Nucleoside/nucleotide kinase family protein
Amino acid sequence: MAAVTRAIDADLVDRACALAEGRRALLGIVGQPGAGKSTLASALLAAATERGIATALVGMDGFHIAHRALTELGLVEVKGAPETFDAAGYVALLRRLRAAEPLVWAPEFRREIEDAIQSAVPVARDVRLVITEGNYLLLDGAWRPVRELLDETWYVDVPEELRRERLAARHEFYGRTPEQAWERTLGSDERNARTVAATRPLADVLVPVG
Ligand SMILES: Nc1ncnc2c1ncn2[C@@H]1O[C@H](COP(=O)(O)OP(=O)(O)OP(=O)(O)O)[C@@H](O)[C@H]1O
Ligand SMILES: [Mg+2]
């Protein structure tokens, strides 16, 4: 799908840049499937970079367990659920980013192949603002250390119907029939959406998206 750079509220850019004032900051963007996390994160990356803040974007999606492994585990049908991610690997990466190691290579999820690739995103020591985004930043269990590793967490708040429509449209764009797209959106995605919605009160900031 064409990468669209959307306008981002200047107040949000101010807030993110202030977090990174004179230090490395980790900012989390969380929200339900299809809420617009990746879109907001890309817009923020562009805006902060334009303001001269060295910024990097590291997705939680890079820690999707490989499709082949999920097949062996019988988890393909619920791909995207919390148990289909390597949460501990994600936590370890955030710890390395927090420690500002000289160079950290992060993985990246590629929707075209429905799999992550390793060592795709470099984060050098001089990066001040690290943006990370994903569904489960505020979950308990294996995800619990994440929130303490982040300076702030923003929740992308979008009306449910709009979110589902955009999610189904994206599924279609990546090759599903309309029926399959809606089955996915109202099936496993919807279960995950409820899991994420339960964490909304834990966010530091709600970002309304229309
Ligand atoms: N403000 C917006 N206006 C119109 N379309 C939008 C907006 N934000 C996102 N979209 C579209 O909605 C769809 C979902 O957005 P996006 O991929 O950013 O969501 P996400 O939260 O990252 O989803 P996922 O959890 O599946 O990774 C995309 O097709 C995107 O282009
Ligand atoms: Mg996304």
